[in-house]
Amino acid sequence: MQNVAAPTTITIRVVTWGASGATGTWYLNDPSATPGDDFIVNGAVALPIDLLSFEVEKQANSTRLTFTTALEQNNSHFQIERSPNGAQFEEIGRIPGAGNSSTILEYTFTDEKPLQGVNYYRLKQVDFDGQFSYSPVVTVQFGETTARLRVAPSPASDEVTVRFETAADEAFSWEVYDQSGRQVLSGSGEAEAEQFGFNVATLTDGFYVLKVVKGREVMSERFQKK
Questions:
Q1: Could you give the 3-state DSSP secondary structure of residue 151?
Q2: Which of its termini does the chain have fewer beta carbons within 10 Å around, N or C?
Q3: pLDDT tens-digit map of 44-54
């Protein structure tokens, strides 16, 4: 049996009916199948946690993050990650998980030194065996920022148009990242461009971050595919 992590108990129950005798031959697969054909059982995999909510609250000089779980299985800990652009994240804190729990639990974490501008936060949930998953990304802004990119429409289902506040004074490159930080699209543009576009039809529904690199300048903007 393949792709089953130990220790795991697998129970297979076989029910027969309409037999014409006390003995005979029965099959788990098609009796016409070639000997050695795989017998495959497909099933659902339980998620390590059931995340009910993940919220951020802007305070005077800090960010308070609150998240709630309804179920935890094999949950070692949560890593709190922050990003200035929604693409590159770094760990800023860690909270122990409950291991195994079926009750509602609330966790809090305070970012004492948030960045100026938009702060992107996400949770990295880590199992005892090292496997992990990410939460959706939430944002909060400190100080004044000037939108140098306009992404429209958002939500988008097909084509996205990106407009610069001022025309690009040199060639640039652009990348699109999903909520896990994985790059899903990329391209480039020429100097003097006032706008550019790309197709998002092949992306799954959710939030994405567009990053534009022009020399040493990095600009980013969040948009939704729906």
A1: strand
A2: N
A3: 444 578 999 99
